[in-house]
Every structure is written in structure tokens, then in C-alpha cells.
Design brief:
It is a single chain. This protein is an alpha+beta fold. It has one domain (5-127): Nucleic acid-binding proteins (OB fold (Dihydrolipoamide Acetyltransferase, E2P)). The chain is built from two helices and seven strands; from the N terminus they run E-E-E-E-H-E-E-E-H. It has helices at residues 58-66, 115-127; strands at residues 5-11, 16-19, 25-38, 44-56, 72-80, 89-92, 98-111. A five-stranded mixed β-barrel has the order 1-3-4-7-5. The longest helix is centred in the last third of the chain and has 13 residues, at 115-127.
Length: 143
């Protein structure tokens, strides 16, 4: 059996690094993929799909060190199914509607932003006023 997913998008917020009790590094971040198309009525439709990504080991440390909110990345990995549904993780938004989250265990993370873009993102993040942690921001494009 074989399963692979490749996504290209932008980080929705800065990566978060933590360590398991055994000392293994793990970084979590969200990636938004965007698509624009014209529907049957001739209207342009913008579609954004969010993926929650976890990277482990050396990839986790490197990802945390170099990526920032807005960074463009290519993630290759495998989908992690919700054990209860066998599909995407289901959750309830603050307004009571149901949301879904696609989770990916990263095998490879490639940085697509140039060094200058990464430095500009880091500078703008340090200049910005602190922002409360976003809930799972699947409804908004944060960049």
C-alpha cells in the first residue's frame, strides 16, 4: 500500500516547535492552498483549503528555524485520517458550524520563498503588534 500527498501553499502562522517526552522534536504549522476558477455563471470563485502539517526530527527543527507566516512551501507527506471518521478531522467552530481539517505528516518540506522574502517576513513579524493565537483559521486567508 502506498499513499502520498503533495501540497504547495503558504503558512498561515509561524510554526510551533515542541518536544515529545522522549525528546523528539515536532513542529506544527498550517498551510493554505488557493485555487481560483470560473463557475457556470461566469463568476470567479476563490477556494482555499487548509492543511495542518506536522514535521518530525531534523525536519521539524529546520522548518521551525527558517519558516514564518506567509512563507511559501511544498510539503510531501501522507494524510492522517481521523480515527473516528476515517476522513478529515471534524470540529465545531465558535459559531456552531462544523469545520474539517486535513492533517498531513510531512516527509519532506521544501522552502519555496527566496531568502530575501524569508528575511522580509521575519522582519515584518518582529515589527508587528502581538496578535492573539488564531483559532483554526480555515475561514480566513491570514496573509
Amino acid at each position: 500500500m502506498f499513499q502520498r500527498i503533495i501540497i504547495v501553499g503558504n503558512l498561515g502562522r509561524d510554526p510551533e516547535l515542541r518536544y515529545t517526552p522522549s525528546g523528539t522534536p515536532v513542529t506544527n504549522f498550517s498551510v493554505a492552498t488557493n485555487r481560483t476558477y470560473t463557475n457556470a455563471q461566469g463568476e470567479q470563485v476563490k477556494e482555499t483549503i487548509w492543511f495542518r502539517v506536522s514535521a518530525w526530527g531534523k525536519t521539524a527543527e529546520t522548518t521551525n528555524q527558517y519558516l514564518r507566516k506567509g512563507s511559501r512551501v511544498l510539503v510531501e507527506g501522507r494524510l492522517i485520517a481521523d480515527p473516528n471518521t476515517g476522513g478529515p478531522r471534524l470540529w465545531t467552530r465558535q459559531d456552531g458550524t462544523v469545520g474539517t481539517s486535513f492533517e498531513v505528516r510531512a516527509i519532506t518540506v521544501r522552502f519555496l520563498s527566496s531568502r530575501e522574502e524569508a528575511e522580509a517576513l521575519a522582519q515584518s513579524a518582529s515589527d508587528a503588534a502581538p496578535v492573539d493565537d488564531l483559532p483554526a483559521a480555515e475561514d480566513e486567508i491570514p496573509f
